[in-house]
């Protein structure tokens, strides 16, 4: 496999912050992910519809002796887009080249990659929505006609030299399918949206990874980790590794429900997968602002974080979990947020109760 470049998240993105429940891969993830990646569609857990459809696309292409159609995978980080692209290459018995949109800033960068592809090779382009405009335009022709025009020279004397490419399969991955220009989206023969995983599916991911890592874990231990993994296999695998450390140091190495919850208490990941930052945002919203509405900037100041960190790191999961709502008037907490932090909304509090619990701003 040829790896041109691997990114951990958008450059400067506050989500690439090394949180235990962060969705982007950190250095340690990258080192172990290769060992934990499913190698075939059969091993790939969940995403039933995507798997079934992709299986048909690949089986049909193989039967025709053709290169598979271009595939677009969209979905949040850590849901298995890179893994699926590698599976596509394995199933097609083709080599794979991995690169990303931000690494292709000039059309020439893309021309160099495309012109060195072998016949049938899979080109995985992560964060395809972040490619430069000229490179994107070059990609249109490459995807459709397996041809690129390489521009030689500058200004009025510049000439376009057509270059034929071998047939290849582009697998584009994006967290933001809506950001792709329609002409690019339309050139993919197969588009799949990857959903967050159900707890039962993540349990299977945890069991599978535990086996590969040679860690003993029981059903309840796996369920405890799965329930705190925010629907994301990458997070499930990361929590499993931290719980394994705890089990080795503080227990007999075996992961049970009690071991998993004690470990994740140490790492401040609660039963719903919220970490310290998520809870700080909720706590400020509930205790300082009575559940809102409150403006994002005010909320950010209250938790001592940048606006972007609150908006891009903490809020998406809180919104997804139905704990926080973004409204034109500001952020508001839902009844589920009060219940999760064990606090009583002001209008329901008995006189004198003050609408708050006993816990501090960063309490569990
Ligand atoms: N369906 C799955 N079954 C088992 N393990 C999975 C599955 N999906 C992902 N994983 C595991 O989760 C980790 C992250 O997956 P992967 O790198 O493919 O995610 P991604 O969507 O490409 O993330 P990013 O967008 O950040 O690159 C890998 O270690 C992989 O083994």
From TrEMBL:
Catalytic activity from the UniProt record: ATP + H2O = ADP + phosphate + H(+)
GO molecular function: helicase activity
Region (Head domain (RuvB-H)): 271-364
Region (Small ATPAse domain (RuvB-S)): 198-268
Keyword DNA damage on entry: yes
Residues that, per the record, bind Mg(2+): 82
Domain AAA+ ATPase: 67-198
Domain notes: Has 3 domains, the large (RuvB-L) and small ATPase (RuvB-S) domains and the C-terminal head (RuvB-H) domain. The head domain binds DNA, while the ATPase domains jointly bind ATP, ADP or are empty depending on the state of the subunit in the translocation cycle. During a single DNA translocation step the structure of each domain remains the same, but their relative positions change.
Complexes and interactors: Homohexamer. Forms an RuvA(8)-RuvB(12)-Holliday junction (HJ) complex. HJ DNA is sandwiched between 2 RuvA tetramers; dsDNA enters through RuvA and exits via RuvB. An RuvB hexamer assembles on each DNA strand where it exits the tetramer. Each RuvB hexamer is contacted by two RuvA subunits (via domain III) on 2 adjacent RuvB subunits; this complex drives branch migration. In the full resolvosome a probable DNA-RuvA(4)-RuvB(12)-RuvC(2) complex forms which resolves the HJ.
HAMAP family cross-referenced by the UniProt entry: DNA_HJ_migration_RuvB
Protein's name in the database: Holliday junction branch migration complex subunit RuvB
Annotated source species: Streptomyces yaizuensis
